[in-house]
Amino acid sequence: MYAVNFLILGALLFALGVFGVIARRNAVMVLMSIELILNAVNVNLIAFALMNDSAEGHVFALYVIAVAAAEVGVGLAMVLMIYRNRRSIALDELSALKG
Amino acid sequence: MSALFAADVNVAQNVGFYIIAAVMLYGAVRIVSTRNVVHAALWLVLVLGGVAAQYVLAAAEFVAVSQVMVYIGAVMVLFLFGIMLTRATIGSEDGLNNRGWGLGIPVALLLAGTMIWVIVDEYGSSVIESPDGPMPTTALSDVFLREGLVPFLALSFVLLAAAIGAIVLARKD
Amino acid sequence: MSMLAATLSSGWFLENAWLIPLIPAIGFVLIILFGKRMPQGGSEVGLVSMAASLAIAIGATVQWIQRVNSASAEGEHALGGFFGFARAIVPTATEEGGHSAAFVEPVVRTWTWWQSGGLEFGVGQHIDGLAIMLLLLVTFISLLVQIYSTEYVSGDRRFTHFFAALTLFSAGMLVMVLAENMIQLILGWEIMGLCSFMLIGHWWEETANSKAALKAFFTVRVGDVGLLVGTAVIFFGANDWAVERGSNGFSIRAISAWALSGEASNSVLFWGGVALFIAAIGKSGQFPLHTWLPDAMAGPTPVSSLLHSSTMVVAGVFLVARVYPVFFVGFDILDTAVNLITIIGGITIIAAAALAFVQDDIKKVLAYSTVSQLGYMMLGLGVGAWLPAVFHIFTHAFFKCALFLAAGSVSHSGSHHSFDMKKDMGGLARKMPVTATTWMISTAALCGIPFFSGFFSKDEIIDNASHNGYQFFYWVGLIGAAMTAAYMTRATYLTFFGKARGAAAGEHHDDHADDHADDHGADHGHDAHGHDDHHDAHAGPHESPWRITAPLVILATLAIFSGYLNAPAVGTHYFTDWVEPVGVAVEADALHSAGDEGHALGLAAVTAEEGGYSEGCGFSDPAEGTVCYAPKLSHAVFSWSKAAPSILLVAFGISISAWLSMGVFGDRRNPLKGLTSRSGIARRGHAFLVNKYYLDHLYEGVIVRAVAYPMAKAAYWINQNILDGIVNGVGRSGRSTGEWVYRNLDQRVVDGAVNASGFIASETGHALQPVQSGKVNQYGALLFGAATVGAIVLILVNI
User: Fold this and answer.
1) Looking at domain A3-87, does it have CATH number 3.40.50.2300?
2) pLDDT tens string C100-137
């Protein structure tokens, strides 16, 4: 099995996730794209663990899964709050940080 | 294609990988291009399931099971609830993309190109030996409870904080 | 009784000194959980836990003194009696020019806290003279302040939380004091920072208070970065050396020994020392970062007296004293005439003392005085006067705490919760005799009038500065002493003498809103909250109740007598014997043998060479197989003739200031009256000081604006231009280019250069403006795009 397989798959998933983060207007969709990015990273971690025959990569992937779960929880709670306050979750309407 | 059938390469494994990878990539493209939020969530299920399948191929069974349980079991439910509670249109809608969404294409292409170039340059010819079997769970637990103990504890705090934070944020009053 | 004696002689208290911070920590949890349901609102838990800690600290102190005495008896039968006064008076241990006293092994115990990646992090106790001194001091003053607080904040709406935070603070400070390693020290340090924040902002409903709390937190935080960096630098320097000897690079003992071993790299010591000193600057309110401390007076007065004068703010000084070998070697303290510590300390002494002159708020006078006195401690450490500096921590804690509590007493019962000396005080000496007397005694101690405690400590610092070759800072210290005397005289006169004004004259503010509306209202803490209900019964100024005066009397008594622990004028040097680590080399296995049964008395000390100042620990590397834990420092010999200049200057300061105060603030007509409104120079000088050297303006105005202003301009530009489109933009930039060329051709070179630089700056700002769109997606695109470009650059560079 070639190492590049996993790594290129990870890279492509990552790039698609990045595209989603940039292009999507709906906050939930952006969160989904972030999940894609995190999974791309996990694929890479597992691939490297396979190459080095070590357990650390697996452990790290599990850490990432846990952090991702936490991130989705907080992220969706924030989205809900924004929706309650503004009746919309379109990100381009949220520009309070505009300098 | 001749490399696919080289002696030291497990053909079945590679073929399986390509099929799953193709499905995953198609799903990922659909996630970022579909006009229907619910469909995007369902495509995401497909991609996450594909990732789990790839883990199995890569001898990471424990991670694969965790992936299924956490992502497909929990995270996806959260997403679906999030979609319902924010009253997204069930069915296709316009305006899911920004006005400047075109900017994403060059950035993503540049990013993918750079990474693929580096990966091919570095790992282009390296072949992974077929693993003798799945990574034993005891090996993982050893790492968790030795070198990884402090991050493990820290992570449990993160999860606790996230749970509390989510409750506080989403509470009505 | 016999059981007590047995316990005392067994070393139990020293072994179990870790209980001292643990008890208040448990007390804190109890107060938080159950305090509101208790009859006294949780204050009883705080009082009991502090009393228990104090009891253990006293036991530990007694045992430490026994240990020191029996170590110096060396085989002789250790004298009976807990204190062994007879031994300490006879100068067997101390001789002129240095100690030849026996090495006293600190009581070190460690437990593994957690381990990660092969590195073990411990918690433990490291009890030596310095730790014992501060343990006793902190528990004692905490107890007194808590007693005082039961009256002072009674009826407050967050009474329980107040006591919880006070108790947690004590726990944090005690954890830091007996810390065995740097990690534990950082833990205690951060707990203190948190409590300081909570207590300054105790009455956060007023914007000024919560702002002051935030300012304190963030300013100290700037310094705290130094603590982390310094700890890391020292760790990477010391770890290999320490691991070889069975310890690790976080252990305070190992760090000290490594710094003095001669194997430490000087640049590591220097930069580690600089980083740690930045932490000390932040915590102890030294010159560039001192601005938070006066603002911290927005907190309740007990908080000011406990945290922001006597205990927490000396944490920075303690840090320097704790790992003194790092600074001693890193800054090459005895071979230079100037170093970073003395510069910062010297500037702080003079700058803060000058600021204290123009304050109208009595607590701010004391705050600047604290800053100035902390400068003395730093100066002392900087000039190699370790013991006098530590002794000054000790004496200063008593008299400055007493001063703050007296100020609180005045506002509580004398001036109707005002702290404004000019508006609401004056002539209170007759109305509040106890408060006035204790204030005056503490003032005398602070000014350094002979035979009060401050004289013995401050004079030692000044004397040793010249003894160790820091002649310039000798004069800085003397001038600072005169200034101290002068501003304290002014404050004393304004508060207790002259004509009664405002509330002190019995005028009642009809409404507290009056108080808030005046122009000083935003500046100082109003301790009025929660008092209004039961205070209207009082008519005019009167003496405070016993729970306020009792701590005052105790502290004032100590402000006189604590100095006699180390008064060379009368030939006592207990403090030196008990606290100063002896700078002799000891057998190297001491580093780790002190594990769990570290009470083997008097480890065989290798005899230190007698005589020269250039030998012994810190001057020559310890012999093979031995380590040093402290540099061998010599002390200046006291003589009245050397003390005379400072006594004269103090007398001069007091008399000039008294004369001026009476002239300016008294009834008689005087040419000095209204000087600042008549003379331009005097007014500008006054304004310069009132504005605290414009440091706040520098921080908030210039630095913040330099960052925020371009952004604001950027926003404006977007509004103007994005919509106008490219054509307009091209025209605009064409026109500006034309103007730029025109101006440069037309104007003179200097003008042109000035204009051009401004123009370039603003054009750069314009160019960056579109970035700040406020749209998350666009930020994401920039982030990933920039990361990609950065990666490509890296790849190209590496090919």
Assistant:
1) no
2) 467 778 888 888 887 766 677 888 888 888 999 999 99
Read off the DSSP letter of residue C467: H
Alpha-carbon distance values, C796 to A4, B114, C509, C783 (Å): 21, 11, 75, 20
pLDDT, tens digit (0-9, with 9 covering 90-100), for C66-96 = 888 887 765 443 333 333 333 333 333 333 4
Q: How many CA atoms lie within 13 A of A34 on its CB side?
A: 20
Rounded to whole angstroms, the Cα distance separating C426 from C403 reads 16
In whole angstroms, give the CA distance from residue C448 to residue C445. Answer: 5
Element (H, E) at C238: helix C207-244
B109 contacts on C by Cβ (under 8 Å): none
| DSSP string covering chain A | -BHHHHHHHHHHHHHHHHHHHHHB-BHHHHHHHHHHHHHHHHHHHHHHHHHHT-SHHHHHHHHHHHHHHHHHHHHHHHHHHHHHHHS--BGGG--TT--
Cβ contact C404:C312 at 8 Å: no
Stretch 120-149 of chain B: residues touching chain C, C-beta under 8 Å: 147, 149
| Among B67, B106, A99, CA closest to C708 | A99
Closest residue in A to C771 (Cα) is: A99
Q: Are C376 and C483 in contact (CB under 8 A)?
A: no
Give φ, ψ of C83 to 5 degrees: -105, -25
- For the stretch A21-74, pLDDT in tens is 999 888 889 999 999 999 999 999 999 998 888 888 999 999 999 999 999 999
Interface ipTM: 0.90
CB distance C444 to C452 below 8 Å: yes
Neighbours of C600 (CB within 10 A): 11
Nearest CA in chain A to B32: A20
Q: Is A22 on the interface with C (CB under 8 A)?
A: yes
Contacting residues for A60 by C-beta, under 8 A, at least 6 apart: A45
Is the entire prediction scored with pTM above 0.80? no
The domain spans of chain A are 3-87
d(CA B128, CA B8): 9
C126 forms beta bridges with: C108
Structure tokens at B95: 């305006």
Q: How far is C242 from chain A (nearest CA, A)?
A: 30
Mean pLDDT across C701-728: 57
Cα atoms in the 13 Å half-sphere on the side-chain side of C117: 4
Q: Are the Cβ atoms of A99 and C711 closer than 8 angstroms?
A: yes
The confidence score (pLDDT) of residue C168 equals: 93
Please answer whether residues C309 and C215 qualify as being in contact, where contact means their C-beta atoms are separated by less than 8 angstroms: no
Cα within 13 Å of Cα(C588), Cβ side: 15
Cα(C178)–Cα(C53) distance, integer angstroms: 13
- Residue A92 pLDDT grade (very low, low, confident, very high; cuts 50, 70, 90): confident
SS3 B119: helix
Residue C715 CB partners (closer than 8 Å, separation 6+): A98, A99, C769, C772
Contact B103 C781 (CB under 8 A): yes
In chain B, the largest separation of any two C-alpha atoms, in whole Å, equals 66
Sign of CA dihedral B19, B20, B22, B23: positive
Rounded distance between C-alpha atoms, residue B91 and residue C609, angstroms: 91
- Taking 3-state DSSP, the helix, strand and coil percentages for chain C, each rounded to the nearest 5, stand at 70, 5, 25
Token pair 């007397």: residue: C437
CA C713 to chain A, closest CA, distance in angstroms equals 8
Identify which has the larger pLDDT, C588 or A11.
A11
pLDDT of residue C688: 66
Residues in CB range of C612: below 8 A, 6 or more apart: none
